[in-house]
Structures are given as structure tokens and as C-alpha cells.
Amino acid sequence: MVRPDMPSPRLLTWPDLVARPRPAPDATIAYGADPFQKVDLWLPADDGPHPAVVMVHGGCWQTSIADRTLMDWIAADLRAAGIAVWNIDYRGVDRPGGGYPGTFDDAGRAVDLLRDHAAAYCLDLRRVVAVGHSAGGHLALWLAARPRLSPASPLHRTEPLPIAHVICLGGLPDLEATATSPDNGCGVEVIERLVGSDRAAPFADTSIPPLLPLGVPHDLVNGREDAIIPYRFAADYVARAADAGDRVALHTIPATGHVELIAPESAAWGAAKRLILAAL
Question: Helix, strand, or coil here: 244?
Fold first, then answer.
């Protein structure tokens, strides 16, 4: 227990995470011509079949802030635990072709590509778990929600890869709430570029609450001291998802900010990893 007179714990920073030795994936697979239309595969050493995690990085939906390599350390940790990781990248809103619909199309194409390579890499697709951090938490939930998209949406696909469970780490599920909350660490302007502000209903096929219930169990893991993504975003979303009938839970990690959520030595990642193993 932390007393009021005790100093606040030192939270992990981005330099703390990225300055450490970087592990390497086992393969990189392209799904388009853009340098960021790629997937890194992290493959366990045994013969398989390997349970599979789809991983989605954050960075405020902006390629200039982060790419898939931000997830390298937790991807390597799952690989060491015998889990294959399909770590996707996508064009952010700051890339040609990004925004709406490109960012969403990229995420969907990258995940659906997993079907094409499952046999060659002995990947078990019976229960695919999606794990996303920050803006990637929103995209991970959106990937699970794709069967709920209206056929009239440009993002609709007839047979998207089924996602069995989602673990959202410090995510932003409600884009409409994010767009009206200046205290969110991504700012409000980026949401316009992400959802397409020239459309009549820009949140209908991009934000998660309009697509509830997802019909897919999901867990949100959030640091109580997260200064980048306000904690209330998770609490408010979980209440709405539960009211809609979804199996959803919020796991609050004390003395934890935003970076710890993807640091393999942290209590937050330990909690997330247990949820992943249980879901698989």
C-alpha cells in the first residue's frame, strides 16, 4: 500500500524501454508495397502447432511515433513461452494512403494474411488472441469487431479472420470520447484524420462502442498512473461493453503508467501474459 506521504513510484519511460538490446523476429512478410505494410513473425523453436497471437502496436495511429518494433520485447517474451506472434504494421494517418480507410484496411489485410501462412509455419488458428497497446488496443478490438461491420461500410469484408479473445493494453476503444478529450495523450486532431471527418457517421465503423456487443471476450489492462491514456477511458468503455452483454473485464495495475504495459519485466505485462495464456 502506498501512503499519501510516500513518494510516487518512478514510472518507466520510452527511453527505458527502447534502449535495451533488441530481439529479432524470425521472418518478415509483406502484404503491400509500402515499407510499413509488413508483418513480423516470431516463431517458437519447437515444431508446433503453435498457438498464435496477433499483436498491434500503438503510437497514436501515427507511423512517425511508433511502428511494430515497439512490441519486439513482449513478442520475444511470448515466443520464449511457446507462442507464435504475428506482429502487424500498418500505415498511420501520417503516411500516404493512411487514415480512413487505409489504416483500417491495412490492419485487416495484415491479420487476414495469417491464414495464408499458417500451414507453412505450423500456426494453430483455432483460437487467435489479439493483443494491442494504446492506439493498437483500439485496432485489436476493431479487428475482433469486423464481423459486426455493416455491409455498406467500405471496411466490410465477408470472411475476416476470427479473433477469439482480445487483450487491450492501455487502449482507446471509444474514438468519439477521445476526440472530445484534450487530456488524451494523442490529441484530438488525429482522430479526425483517422475516422474521416467528411463522412456522415465517421464513428459508426471505426469506434468500438457503436459495434457493441462484439460477442468476443475481452480484457482491458490499464495502469492506474497512466498519464498518456486517462484511466477513465477504460472504466467508461468496460461499463458500456458489459451493459451491451459482452464478457469484458478491467484489470487495474497500481503504480503503473503507459510504458510498463509492454515491458516484459513489469507487473502489467505479467498480468497481460497470464490473460493471454488463459485465453489460448
Answer: coil
CA 55/CA 74 separation, integer angstroms: 10
- pLDDT single digits (tens) 96-116: 999 999 999 999 999 999 999
Strands 165-169 and 218-223: parallel
Rounded CA separation 39/62 (Å): 17
pLDDT above 70 (res 4): no
- Within 8 A by CB and 6+ apart from 76, the residues are 23, 42, 264
Phi, psi dihedral angles at 81 (to 5 degrees): -90, 5
> According to DSSP H, which parts of the chain are helical?
14-18, 72-80, 102-117, 135-145, 175-179, 189-195, 231-243, 267-279
Q: Is the pTM above the cut of 0.90?
A: yes
In the block, which residue shows the cell 502506498?
2
CA 11/CA 9 separation, integer angstroms: 6
C-alpha 36/C-alpha 204 separation (Å) is: 26
Q: What is the mean pLDDT of residues 245-266?
A: 97
* Contact (Cβ atoms closer than 8 angstroms) between residue 63 and residue 36: yes
Give the C-alpha distances (Å, rounded to integers) separating 179 from 102, 132, 202, 203, 207. 19, 20, 11, 10, 11
Q: Express each pLDDT in 103-162 by its tens digit.
A: 999 999 999 999 999 999 999 999 999 999 999 999 999 999 999 999 999 999 999 999
d(Cα 181, Cα 183) in Å, to the nearest integer? 5
Other CB atoms within 10 A of residue 31 CB: 18
Counting runs of H as helices and runs of E as strands, what totals does the chain give? 8, 8
The amino acid at residue 54 is V
